[in-house]
Specification:
The structure holds two protein chains of two kinds.
Chain A: H1 7-20, H2 28-39, H3 47-53, H4 58-67, E1 79-84, H5 87-90, H6 94-105, E2 118-123, E3 135-137, E4 140-142, H7 147-157
Parallel strand pairs in A: 1-2
Antiparallel strand pairs in A: 1-3, 3-4
Helix pairs in contact in A: 1-2, 3-4
Chain B: E1 3-9, H1 12-16, H2 19-32, E2 36-42, E3 54-58, E4 61-65, H3 71-80, E5 90-93, H4 98-101, H5 119-124, H6 129-135, H7 139-149, H8 161-170, E6 177-182, H9 191-198, H10 200-214, E7 218-223, H11 228-243, E8 259-264, H12 274-281, E9 305-309, H13 310-322, H14 324-328, E10 331-332, E11 335-336, E12 338-345, E13 351-356, H15 361-368, E14 378-383, E15 390-392, H16 402-407, E16 416-421, H17 426-440, H18 446-464, H19 468-485, H20 489-493, H21 495-504, H22 506-516
Classes of the chains: A alpha+beta, B alpha/beta.
The complex binds flavin mononucleotide, iron/sulfur cluster and FE2/S2 (inorganic) cluster.
Chain lengths: 158, 517
């Protein structure tokens, strides 16, 4: 879910999140995760208030933001399709599935379609390795995945 | 028939192939027939190859059913047959399934059977007996039992759990932590997830016993973000355990305090390495720390900390309730007890097989696994995740044992076996190992950060047929450098899959070179 926020709204909600984590040791990652839950990504404007509230440098917060693959610096598409790229899924054709989906959506793995409809992302193991290949569509996990299944799920949620 | 009790796995993998649809089909058909259906959402039995499936309570035990056509057809047939093996889709009594009967389920004895949301059900099935026993023992006595059991860490390194606990117990300081590593990033592994979703109180019990043994009052459970269902289930179970007096300021009137907080990972494989996990728990980048100091002495926020894998901690309650010898008597050599093996990838019968150490890889992959999913020959089995070696078919008679595998140049890791059929290109797999390392490296040391990137480039040159002999020698050198010069096992073990591919499948590295000539 991506929320378009006005600067005032943004400051307000980040203030809220920071208040919730007051007194928690080492809250930086927790705060960034909470911000992403609220906005769908971590807006650049969030860095300054987070750094200030946690007595960290801007670089510290930016360092955490860029380290973790989950944390986004830009809003994702309206739908997010994650295709497992790890070995158990490779053994069941994940590479081919990824190519099919990339062609279908006309997007490179890791990117969002031009119309903003779909983000196609790699993920490394979803713990569904006995039912590979595995994908998630907007967070819902699927096993024995095919291109058809992904399209069907997207149709159902669109 | 007026009423019937059904069991359908609510495990996320089961749901990923339609378990929720099955629940709806059962409810609808039962309603149509005026039968009162009680549907319990259990964890998974680990029979993923049979999913989606369901079980029905009968006088003789639970009877399994597995749709072959539509789910509605299967449910109709099941009712028409009066819940009997007359139905085409009946699997028979679950307890009679050879795949389950031939296992030695200790850690997973309740998984798939009980309602993971119910403390009462856990209790009824022998839960919390280990903790009750521990509450009557001194920390030293608990540590001694765990040491005597021979329990070794299930996260990959196989370090004796009792030794680690003893270090934390002996470390000075009032504040100590228990950190459970549920980052389970290895491809081909899902046992931690299954356990957290299917028997969460067992992990809580294990962590609490660890706390009593070492004097910790606070625990963190670090679960990867790819496991949202496990996160939700563990949070629910922690609240329920607290409400039942099994966690909190005064555990069952003992005056002892312990509580657990769930923390969610953020998609970094390296945060499964224990010191990177501690950094992440402190809210920082997941950069690996140099050791010493050991986390047991200076761990989370600089305090003595137990870091153990989910399966290590989940094995502890049984050791306390049934005794160290019960556990130690299973296994081989210095690998004691049972290991939950996970069969994954291109395998016909994928799922969880808990067996005593010493079972051969072939028995796991061929007898339990039924060979490849495609029916084609097995070419390689990667054991131990992305840092584990590719074992060729000829070597599958190796026993699953830490030392035996290490001697042959492989590792058991977290017990995942990923099967590949003969269509796999081992050069591509070697390249992926380097690519994954480059993607997930924490960046602290050069051999790993730069080496992995170079590794991809060199393999690409080999694939293109450019000076193959020179580049193969370069790749060997690079592997040696990474093995010897890396700070942690991420860079240090990435050469294992690469070298195993080079050694056992040299043709795959020559073919492309030959084609280019
Ligand atoms: C790159 C890397 C990733 C690791 N990932 C995990 C993991 O996901 N889960 C885990 O329990 N241990 C993992 N480990 C091992 C931990 O560092 C540590 O040895 C383990 O958590 C200790 O618990 P144990 O003694 O109970 O196995 C990893 C190690 C490395 C080097
Ligand atoms: S080997 Fe890689 S992951 Fe480990 S400390 Fe060095 S750079 Fe970080
Ligand atoms: S490797 Fe794809 S789900 Fe585990």
């Amino acid at each position: 879910m991506t929320v378009v926020a006005t600067p005032a709204d943004l400051a307000d909600r980040i203030g809220h999140i920071l208040a919730e984590h007051q007194g928690t040791d080492g809250a930086c990652l927790l705060v960034l995760q909470a911000i992403q839950r609220a906005f769908g990504y971590v807006p650049a404007a969030a860095l300054e208030p987070v750094a200030k509230a946690l007595s960290l440098s801007h670089a510290d917060v930016y360092g955490v933001l860029t380290f973790y693959h989950d944390l986004r610096r830009a809003p994702p598409g309206r739908h997010v399709v994650r295709v497992c790229q790890a070995e158990a899924c490779q053994a069941m054709g994940a590479r081919g599935l990824t190519e099919q989906l990339a062609r279908r959506f006309d997007v490179a793995l890791g990117d969002t379609t031009k119309d903003g409809a779909v983000t196609l992302e790699p993920v490394y193991c979803l713990g569904n390795c006995a039912l590979s290949p595995a994908v998630t569509v907007d967070g819902a996990l699927y096993g024995r995945a095919t291109e058809f299944l992904v399209l069907e799920r997207l149709g159902a949620v669109r | 028939m007026k009423s019937a009790t059904f069991f359908v796995s609510g495990d996320s993998a089961s749901v990923s192939v339609g378990a929720d649809d099955l629940v709806r089909a059962i409810a609808a058909e039962a309603k149509r027939r005026g039968i009162e259906a009680r549907i319990v959402r259990t964890g998974s039995r680990g029979l993923y190859f049979l999913e989606p499936m369901f079980e029905v309570e009968t006088d003789e035990g639970r009877m399994g059913f597995r749709p072959s056509g539509t789910m509605a057809e299967c449910v109709t047939e099941m009712f028409d047959s009066d819940i009997s093996p007359k139905a085409r889709t009946c699997l028979g009594l679950m307890d009679d399934l050879p795949w389950l009967r031939r296992q030695e389920r200790l850690t997973f004895e309740r998984c798939g059977i009980i309602d993971p949301r119910s403390v009462g059900d856990y209790r009824f099935h022998g839960g919390f007996l280990g903790l009750e026993r521990a509450l009557g023992l001194t920390p030293e006595e608990i540590v001694a039992m765990v040491t005597d059991s021979g329990l070794r860490g299930r996260g990959g390194a196989g370090f004796p759990a009792g030794v680690k606990w003893n270090t934390v117990l002996g470390a000075p300081g009032d504040v100590k932590y228990i950190c459970c590593n549920a980052d389970e990033g290895d491809s081909g592994t899902f046992a931690d997830r299954m356990l957290m979703e299917g028997d969460p109180f067992l992990l809580i019990e294990g962590m609490t016993i660890a706390a009593l043994a070492t004097g910790a009052a606070k625990g963190f459970l670090y679960i990867r973000s790819e496991y949202p269902a496990a996160i939700a289930m563990m949070r629910h179970a922690i609240d329920a355990a607290r409400a039942g007096g099994w966690l909190g300021v005064d555990i069952r009137g003992s005056g002892k305090a312990f509580d657990i907080e769930v923390r969610e990972g953020a998609g970094a494989y390296i945060c499964g390495e224990e010191t990177a996990m501690l950094e992440s728990l402190e809210g920082k980048r997941g950069m690996v720390r140099a050791k010493p100091p050991l986390p047991a002495l200076e761990g989370l926020f600089g305090k003595p900390t137990v870091v153990n894998n989910v399966l290590t901690l989940a094995a502890v309650p049984l050791i306390l309730s049934r005794g160290a010898a019960y556990y130690r008597d299973l296994g081989m050599g210095r690998s004691r007890g049972t290991q939950p093996f996970q069969l994954a990838g291109c395998v016909r019968n994928g799922g969880l097989v808990e067996k005593a150490f010493g079972i051969t890889l072939r028995t796991l992959v061929e007898d339990f696994g039924g060979g490849t999913a495609t029916g084609r020959p097995i070419k390689a089995v990667q054991v131990g995740g992305p840092l584990g070696g590719y074992i060729p078919e000829e070597l599958l008679d190796l026993p699953a044992d830490y030392e035996a595998l290490a001697e042959a140049g492989f590792m058991l890791g977290h017990g995942g076996l990923v099967v590949f059929d003969d269509r796999v290109d081992m050069l591509a797999q070697a390249r992926f190992a380097m690519e994954f390392c480059a993607h997930e490296s924490c960046g602290k040391c050069t051999p790993c950060r730069i080496g992995a990137v170079r590794g991809v480039e060199v393999i690409d040159r080999i694939a293109a047929g450019a000076e193959p002999a020179k580049n193969l020698a370069l790749l060997e050198d690079l592997c040696t450098l990474m093995t010897d010069g890396s700070l942690c096992a991420m860079g240090g073990l990435t050469p294992m899959p690469v070298r195993s591919a080079l050694r056992h499948f040299p043709d795959d590295f020559r073919r492309s070179a030959a084609a280019a000539e």
